[in-house]
Design brief:
The complex is a heterodimer of chains A (495) and B (110). Chain A is 74% helix and 2% strand. With 495 residues, chain A is mainly alpha-helical. Chain A has one domain. Chain A has a two-stranded antiparallel ribbon with strand order 1-2. In chain A, helix 5 packs antiparallel against helix 10, helix 9 runs antiparallel to helix 10 (240-250) and helix 14 packs antiparallel against helix 16 (371-385). Chain B is mainly α. Chain B has helices spanning 2-20, 25-44, 67-96. In chain B, helix 1 (2-20) packs antiparallel against helix 2 (25-44). The longest helix of chain B is centred in the C-terminal third of the chain and has 30 residues, at 67-96. The radius of gyration of chain B is 19 Å and the shape is elongated. The chains are: A mainly alpha (495), B mainly alpha (110). Chains A and B meet through helix 5, helix 6 and helix 9 of A and helix 2 and helix 3 of B.
Chain lengths: 495, 110
């Protein structure tokens, strides 16, 4: 029974999506059903994480009872379970926001099924132990995310979706080339088996090609610097409930993939990859920070901020010491909570604006009548900038501390510069919305999206910031686990 | 046979990338189709032609590998769905923006 448990966080949203399609005639029932499915799946993945951590053994399920290298393995190890919990917390909050949102697109009968499909794809991509299966789940995420953007109230949603779909088509092409090269060289797609065989025969001619294409595919998924150009368009044009998901957890597929690549599949070859990640991450931190300072649109600013924050995680993965990996992991979790809350708050303010837009020349000065949203935005902004008592302080402290102990002073200085930019753009947005006098004659509408979802998320961020010990303990256990790839391999291959 | 595969895959990738970079929607859609087929051919070349008899057939002889074929099937289904979606988006874009030129689809600027 324990092994089947890892199926549930994927099956529940997927089956929930199918049933939600059948419930399309009654919107209320459909919404309640979707929320129930999401909460059940969240509870199941939390139980999975607790179980994995308390026993210290991963949960492995061989689909169809085919033994490990031949069938598809679902692998709920500590890292995957933590990522799954992170995704599902944010997704559940996203559903709460969607329910209280005044967007027209939330009323469409396809919205909740697609949202659940997005949840299933995300969780599946984290929990799978097979490279091709990862491709399938990543495609599910891409397609449902694109459709959710294309139906946005914003008329240019289709344009953003079109751009994103082309880029991710390229990413899946690269992923398939990597899969083909690896299968041609090593005759397996199971990540554990692949890790074992690559370590045994590292000089197959197609290996560098697979390494390069796989890295590029994950970099596109995470919108890292040279592949980021679609991301601000895509994340600012989608409906608020969806953009909060896209910019916080969907980009984590790439971070997760790179973490797996450097610690499991390509351990021997990870050196140059790590250096590349540090360089790209630092460019992302600086470029994302500067672009966020320069932009005139609140959601777009947060999208550029994601570019910078992902850069911090890549720098942590690139430094590669256990402490730096732990910092990257804590950063990923905290960023998911903070960024989704911030985007929801920006969307909330935009929903109160006279014309629905998050551009600063529309929402500037609107904040006078929105004190609660302002307080939450201030707290979230402090988190993004890394000020105590928010959880962002924890992640930045860990990251800079790990950089000091790894003696990476040059990259540390650049990352710290980028961190100052974070403070600047958050303060600028707060000042523009809440301090400046309103635009001529503009008044906030008396109603808008509900604030409960961002309030919950910011509350969680504050809780982690004040009482961070559980998250730190879990992350330390995860890093302890992924630093011994041999344990992962033997867990999947039986024994 | 392998040389033929290599040349065909290379040619198809070249044509696909060239078409993807064109400005006309129709060309881009053609590029998507050719790209997904180039990749399917690449996946098939991983070893589908190595055997003499089908994987689970009763006949004797060198069995061919069933996995590349399964992968290609999955990839075909996914790329078919993706292509249908791309065409639908192109249709809507061509109505909303009244153009078939990708360079004129540029309203997202701030």
């Amino acid at each position: 029974m324990r092994n089947e448990w890892v199926l549930l966080p994927i099956i529940i949203p997927l089956a929930g999506a199918a049933i939600a399609v059948l419930l399309r005639r009654t919107h209320r029932v459909q919404a309640a059903w979707s929320f129930g499915a999401m909460l059940t799946s969240l509870a199941v993945s939390v139980l999975l994480l607790i179980d994995v951590l308390s026993t210290g053994r991963p949960v492995v399920f061989q689909v169809g009872a085919w033994p490990a290298p031949f069938g598809i393995s679902l692998m709920g190890d500590a890292l995957a379970a933590l990522m799954a919990v992170m995704c599902q917390v944010v997704l559940a909050a996203g559903l709460v926001y969607a329910r209280g949102s005044r967007d027209q697109c939330v009323q469409y009968s396809g919205f909740f099924p697609l949202f659940l499909a997005l949840a299933a794809g995300l969780t599946g991509a984290m929990l799978t132990g097979d490279l091709f299966n990862l491709f399938v789940f990543a495609e599910l995420v891409v397609i449902s995310g694109t459709i959710l953007t294309a139906i946005s109230d914003d008329k240019s949603g289709v344009e953003a979706a079109f751009k994103y779909f082309f880029i991710s088509l390229l990413a899946s092409a690269l992923l398939l080339i990597a899969i083909g090269s690896l299968y041609a060289s090593y005759g397996t797609l199971n990540m554990a088996d692949l890790a074992r065989r690559i370590a045994a025969e590292p000089d197959r001619p197609l290996l560098p090609i697979a390494l390069a294409t796989l890295t590029a595919a994950f970099l596109i998924k995470s919108a890292v610097f040279p592949f980021h150009f679609w991301q601000p368009d895509f994340h600012s044009a989608s409906p608020t409930a969806v953009s909060a998901m896209l910019s916080s957890v969907v980009v984590k597929i790439g971070v997760y993939g790179l973490l797996r690549m450097t610690t499991l599949i390509f351990v021997e070859q990870a050196g140059p990859l790590r250096e590349l990640l540090v360089v790209l991450g630092l460019i992302g931190v600086l470029f994302g920070g500067l672009a966020a300072i320069g932009t005139q649109h609140a959601k777009r600013m947060l999208a550029y901020s994601t570019l910078g924050q992902i850069g911090f995680m890549l720098v942590g993965i690139g430094w590669g010491t256990p402490l730096a990996l732990m910092a990257a992991l804590v950063f990923a979790v905290n960023h998911a909570l903070l960024k989704s809350a911030m985007l929801m708050l920006a969307g909330n303010v935009a929903s109160r604006a006279p014309i629905k837009s998050a551009a600063f020349n529309v929402i500037g000065g609107l904040g006078k009548t929105l004190p609660l949203a302002g307080a939450l935005f201030l707290l979230g902004g402090m988190g993004l900038a890394g000020l105590p008592p928010m959880n962002g302080f924890l992640s930045k402290y860990l990251l800079f501390n790990s950089g000091l102990s790894a003696q990476e002073f040059g990259s540390l200085a650049l990352a710290a510069t980028g961190s100052v930019f974070t403070l600047v753009y958050v303060a600028r947005a707060f000042q523009k919305i809440w301090w400046e006098p309103p635009v001529e004659g503009a008044k906030a509408k008396p109603y808008g999206d509900r604030l409960i979802a961002p309030a919950l998320l910011i509350g969680l961020c504050l809780l982690i910031g004040v009482w961070g010990e559980p998250l730190l303990k879990v992350s330390a256990a995860v890093i302890d686990w992924i630093s011994t790839p041999a344990a992962y391999i033997s867990a999947v291959r039986g024994g | 046979m392998e040389l033929l595969y290599a040349i065909a895959i290379g040619l198809m990738f070249g044509i696909a990338v060239f078409q993807l970079l064109r400005r006309n929607f129709n060309r881009v859609a053609l590029g998507v189709i050719i790209l997904s087929n180039a990749i399917n051919l690449f996946l098939l070349s991983m070893g589908a032609t190595n055997g003499e008899v089908a994987a689970y057939a009763a006949a004797t002889g060198q069995r061919s590998d069933a996995l590349p074929q399964a992968l290609v099937l999955t990839a075909i289904v996914i790329s078919l769905g993706g292509l249908a979606f791309v065409l639908a988006m192109m249709y809507i874009l061509s109505i909303r923006y009244n153009t078939t030129d990708t360079d004129e689809v540029d309203r997202l600027k701030y």
